[in-house]
Amino acid sequence: MDAKAINTFPIREYLAARGIRPAKDKGYYGLYHSPLREDRTASMKVDYDKNLWIDYGAGEGGTLIDLVMRMERCDAGEAMRQLEQRISGTPSFSFHGYSNPVSPHRESAIAIEKVRPLESFALLDYLTERGIDLAAARAHCSEVHYYVVDKSYFAVGFRNDAGGWELRNRYFKGCTSKALTTRRGDYPTCLVFEGFMDYLSFLTLKHNSTPPHNIVVLNSVTNLAKAVPFIASHEQVYAYLDNDEAGRKATSELKEACRNLSDQSIHYRPHNDLNDYLRSRRPVKEHRRSRVRKF
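Above: the chain's sequence. Below: its structure in token form.
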């Protein structure tokens, strides 16, 4: 069973099988207490028609596979394996019991329409709000226009080594495939980042869009195991991971694998990540909303 087929199975049926029910059900969408974090306000929305979810508190969203990857802290292959087992062996995944199930032939994955250089005012304003130097963003990112079902969107796109895209805009955080991104050269040192916003933050802080180091952007800590062989081959490794439980665990695993690792997260505590630290150092003036187009 491929990803397209797996992603047609209703997210709410998957959640129901896990004992997770909507706090509010509006018929065509439900509001849930997020299973990804402590959430007292039910700020995760599941759109039943599109079969997509978005966690407004975490700023993340996507397909059923994306949700399982986040809940189980696993990669896409493992998420698909778990879902395939549940779908084939659990009656609760039978499409019965709801008045408006998703058609098994309906496309719900992200489909790329076009990729071009960053030029959208909305995206440039978003990056400026994050404190990112626009020259660095243009050097490493693209403007990606894409479809989800029959609606079009656009976002800042960061290419991964599998040819997919990490996608970010003011309202959405997702990806077309979950894989790491590397920049490889003849360097003895390697810098490791959890997400591409942290990488862009580093470039902004250093005023250098082409640092003389090899680069690994995990795009998710679930990709760490795939990245370790390349990272561990360097004489010196600098880790810029998040100051949360997942980031600390990943840094600890890197320390075990690398003979000479320097944990750089101590330099931006108590901030959660490098981008939070950058924004604290560079307060952004209120933008004129009149020039910002909606996504």
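The chain has ten helices and 15 strands.
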